[in-house]
Amino acid sequence: MSEPAVVPPAAGVPRMTFMQHLVELRRRLLWALVGVFIAAAVCLTFSAELFEWLRTPLASVKQETLIVLTPLELYVTYLKLGVVAALFVSAPWCLYQVWLFVAPGLYSHEKRWVVPFVSLGTLFFVGGGLFAFYVVLPMGFQYVLAEMPKTVEPRFSVALYFDLVINLSLAFGVVFELPLVMWVLSAARIVNPAFYTRVRRYWIVVAFVVAAILTPPDPFTQTLMAIPLLVFFEVGALGARLLYRRGERPVESAVTPAG
């Protein structure tokens, strides 16, 4: 199957220079940070409630009292929880800023994808965090505690425990965005779905390498991340083929009125 012809940029749409792209990127990052800051100001008022909720993966496996090792450990943890909660709450706003950054290079019919992009991006990001919280963490703690010898009494630091919860939740949230990225690249005809077929065998290795980097050094947790990476790759490849087959990108040209 031959590659589709490259469609020139729409007439009448000015090209942005490299510096203009940088200025626009800075503007979008600043607006995204403003949204995160406002959300954090609200979420920080619920840090104590977040603390009790986020300790349930461990509490569901073993009734264990968390300990603090430094005077400010608990308060720093409260601050982290508020900021991380703000990232999830402000995800639609941040994704919208990403869309505004790439929108100038899209055709008019592609700019209508803003709602699916923001909605699915938020759903995948939050869904990844919830998957880590309700599935990966309880199963991971159960596995780790079962492997501990009887001569070892587990004690969990507040800072180390919540760092693990935060890191895994964010990591799974980012990983769950994989299908959306693949769909967008193929819908915009930047990547041919045949490319995904060619790299499938390599992706198996990449999935386990990424899982080893983003998760604690135990094979059980790494497998729990690698499996969604493999599944989402197939979901992304399938959706990419469907979107890519919707047809050629229309050539949009300016119409000069007869004078």
Describe this structure in words.
This protein has 259 residues and is an all-alpha fold. The chain has one domain. Helices cover 68% and strands 0% of the residues. The chain contains eleven helices and no strands. Helix 1 runs antiparallel to helix 5, helix 6 crosses helix 7 and helix 8 runs parallel beside helix 11. It is globular, with a radius of gyration of 23 Å.
Distance between the termini: 44 Å
Number of separate structural domains: 1
Radius of gyration: 23 Å
* 3D shape: globular
Order of helices and strands: HHHHHHHHHHH
Largest sheet: none
Count of alpha/pi helices: 11
**Share of helix among residues?**
55-70%
Give the percentage of residues in beta strands.
under 5%
Mean pLDDT: 82
Helix and strand content put the structural class at mainly alpha
User: Can you tell me the residue ranges where pLDDT is under 50 for at least 5 consecutive residues?
Assistant: 1-13, 247-259
Strand segment count? 0
